[in-house]
Design a protein that fits this description.
With about 220 residues, the chain is of the alpha+beta class. It has three helices and ten strands, in the order ααββββββββββα. Helix 1 runs antiparallel to helix 2.
């Protein structure tokens, strides 16, 4: 429908996000058209004409009630439609054997792998700048931190956006469905170098990911 102008979806939950986006887009788009058409009609109907006097009105109570209740109902319906996806994506962490720590700082991403022992803060940790490497069809849990200001961890192709807040540890997850190299920008204005804060997510086949792991942990 509108996918032609969105980044390619390579996430297991991307279709749910896109569906909600399209729904909100159509609601706001149709509303905007109705408002613009109404404004144009009123401009013609109530334009200034010779001999026509202005007439003042104090409004209409039924109309005011209607345009208060209708948007409220739309928001309530959208809330109920979005709760299942929001709950599954944001409120729950599926089981995962791959946990990566991503520390945001002005102006790059510091990606740390725990190594074969599975523990952070040990000698076999691996830290990379602006490079996140994961296997395909695997749940990846990302632990987000920030060293300075608020940043936003954004994977457009994975339909994932999550703030990294100083003093907090926030977890997010994704599961990539297509191998490739995808952009990882910061989506929160974080200073003069914000526009250059760009990393990359590389998604491998299982075989290629095993090779990558052996290159960094030979033993």
């Amino acid at each position: 429908m509108l996918n032609w102008w969105l980044p390619e979806n390579v996430s297991t939950y991307g279709a749910e996000i896109d569906w909600l986006f399209h729904l909100i887009y159509w609601i706001t788009g149709i509303t905007a058209i109705l408002v613009f058409v109404t404004m144009a009609v009123f401009l013609v109907m109530y334009r200034d004409r010779p001999g026509r006097k202005a007439r003042y009105t104090h409004g209409s109570t039924p109309l005011e009630i209607a345009w208060t209740i209708v948007p409220a109902l739309i928001l309530i319906v959208l809330t109920f439609l979005s709760v299942p996806a929001w709950s599954r994506i944001k409120m729950q962490l599926p089981p995962s054997n791959l946990v990566v720590r991503v520390t945001a700082k002005q102006f790059n991403w510091e990606v740390t792998y725990p190594g074969p022992d599975g523990q952070f803060g040990t000698d076999d940790d691996l830290t990379l700048e602006n490079e996140l490497h994961v296997p395909i069809n695997t749940v990846v849990v990302v632990t987000l931190q920030s060293r300075d200001v608020i940043h936003s961890f954004f994977l457009p192709n994975l339909r994932l956006k999550q703030d990294a807040v100083p003093g907090r540890e926030i977890r997010a997850w994704f599961e990539a469905t297509e191998p490739g190299r995808y952009e990882l920008p910061c989506a929160e204005l974080c200073g003069f170098g914000h526009s250059g804060m760009l990393g990359y997510l590389t998604v491998y086949s299982p075989e290629d990911y095993s090779k990558w792991v052996k290159e960094h942990w030979p033993s």
